[in-house]
Design brief:
273 residues, alpha/beta, globular
Length: 273
């Protein structure tokens, strides 16, 4: 009987989701991979099976679609095929303002980065609590402490939601961790159409290092994980700074390049993929 732990990772076809999938397979986890891009998921699954002997289930889904999300939630909360670690990573950036922008894209962003996180966390954590063990990692961002429109608002919600979830789960053997990175070298910014060539090298984090830190923090039950000392200091500064100053520094979304790191790994056409 295969008693390897199972991790379900959303947005697993690229970026941080891909890094999570590879790291977890190397650690001996079986995997449930969720994304919109079925072909990329199948290729990744084949690679992980060959390299690590992992049992990998591919579950193509657009998390903005409620029926598709319900199917993923059913898998996350399965009693007969338990999920030991849920990584809510799927999401995308928005390079447009709310005023005069396409409100449907903003709604889609909230569906993927808030509603899906809520539904999947509830399904997985409920089943984990019954078993007395498990972990939820919700990928948020340092941007959640800024004031940069829908993306920052979604990340602020994710961090606060995860803190509340961790409180509910205290003493149950189940943990909840909000991962809040800064700039990460992935496809995220390129898919947004954002030129990052002028960004200083020191601002960028390695995706594999971010994942290693996240898993270490989740393993010790940390509620908030901010990889690297420089971003931990930036996050502290943002949390302590007067909000008028934060708003002034954040600027308008879509009007110019955002001054604060976005820290995610998916682009505007990549919800749930």
């Amino acid at each position: 009987m295969d008693d390897a732990p199972t991790a379900l990772v959303t947005g697993a076809s690229a970026g941080l989701g891909l890094a999570f999938a590879r790291a977890l397979a190397a650690r001996g986890h079986d995997l449930v991979l969720v994304a919109r891009d079925a072909a990329r998921l199948e290729a990744l699954a084949a690679d992980l099976r060959a390299q690590h002997g992992a049992a990998v289930q591919v579950l193509p889904a657009d998390l903005a679609d409620r029926e598709a999300l319900a199917a993923v939630a059913e898998r996350a909360g399965s009693a007969s095929r338990p999920v030991d670690l849920l990584v809510n990573n799927a999401g995308f950036g928005l390079r447009q303002p709310v005023v005069g922008g396409d409100v449907r894209e903003h709604e889609r962003a909230l569906d993927v980065m808030c509603r899906a996180v809520l539904v999947l966390s509830a399904a997985a954590a409920t089943a984990m609590r019954e078993r007395g063990r498990g972990a939820v990692v919700n990928v948020s961002s340092v941007a959640g402490w800024t004031a940069m429109g829908t993306y920052a608002a979604a990340k602020a919600w994710t961090t606060t939601f995860t803190e509340g979830l961790a409180g509910e789960l205290r003493g149950t053997g189940v943990s909840a961790t909000a991962l809040c990175p800064g700039f990460v070298r992935t496809e995220f910014h390129a898919r947004m159409g954002e030129d990052t060539s002028g960004s200083p090298a020191w601002a960028w984090l390695d995706a594999d290092a971010v994942v290693e830190q996240a898993l270490a923090d989740a393993g010790r039950g940390a509620v908030v994980s901010v990889p690297s000392r420089r971003y931990a200091l930036a996050a502290l500064g943002l949390r302590l700074a007067p909000r008028p100053l934060v708003r002034a520094a954040s600027g308008g979304v879509g009007a110019r390049r955002a001054p604060w790191p976005m820290g995610r790994d998916r682009g505007p056409r990549a919800a749930g993929s």
